[in-house]
Specification:
77% helix
Amino acid sequence: MWIGLFLTAFLVALIKLLFLGDTEVFLRLINSTFEMAKSGFEIALGLTGIMTLWLGIMRIGEKGGIVQLLAKLVTPLFKRIFPELPPDHPAIGTMLMNFSMNFLGLDNAALPLGIKAMEQLQTYNPQKNTASNAQIMFLVLNTSGLSVIPISIMVYRAQLGAADPTDIFIPILLATFFSTIAGLIAVAIYQKINLFDKVFLLYLSCFVLVVALIIGYAYQQPPEKLQKVSSVASNLILCTVIVAFILLAVKEKVNVYETFIGGAKEGFQVAIQIIPYLVAMLVAVGVFRACGAMDWLIKGIHFTFASLGINTDFVPALPTAFMKPLTGSGARGMMIDTMKTYGADSFVGRLASIMQGSTETTLYMVAVYFGAVNIRKTRYTVICGLIADFFGILAAILMGYLFFYEN
């Protein structure tokens, strides 16, 4: 895929130069490589502080015993979807914390926890340069982007004048749910995991019940209150986690400060280690965008659906969908541009918002998570991640038409 992005960009740029007279196309490609290389370094540098903080907090939680306590709650489920891991593996608690942060839309907290989990899973990986089954399942579940509180998207919609910034809450929740289920099924097929196990179905039923209760509560609240409650609840939970970790560590007579410093030191090392992987992926994405291949792809899709007599009103929102697996900032920029162009409350503006929240940045996460542990052979990770992305985007389109489309 990495090679394909470069070759596609070169061929499209060559066609533009020879047949369309675009003499600046290769200049844009080269400038893009410089810009994206710089961006990759800056992103990694920006992650250093976040990872330093949360890896330190995580070390306190491990020493205090709360992570192990939480792990016991999900061990029956994790035994089914991570059958190769022993029940007491430390990665189970870390993965649970990572999923919880993603669930609440706390991306900054989720990323360092995810990297920590990947490092812990690597200790049980017999082939250190090849992704294990557990690592693939963990990463694909992450890339499916399951989130209940898409607070950042609501904020952008409010800033761009949406009458009801939270009206995309339910559609995003449903779209990301389908994305997660699709990713889980895809990996389960590869790994021959039985998803009809009674324990798994019990956990799934409980999860669906929680989601249903959240939806029911959301429907009863005015938009302004729902947005405020989402913001307050997210940050309250985050602060509670930090304080609970510290208090339990104090109870266990752990030297909290020294423990934090010991875990925090890992943050800088990990940030430096992922720079080459991050730069490689972002540069490839940058040249693909700079050559105009993305624009041609959108026009081709519009022509194809129009020729088949299918409604094409969703097509202007697709740049957000196509950018999402590649780069989160790029997708966010596309979403904002779409809302500015068509209006935050337009069908296209709302659909772009749903697409932004329906899945995660698959290729970015593959580069960061696997780069952190020097894994080069990712096996079927990208395929399963993109399957989750596809169903998330498809569900987003369906939710957009179901909730917001007016003939």
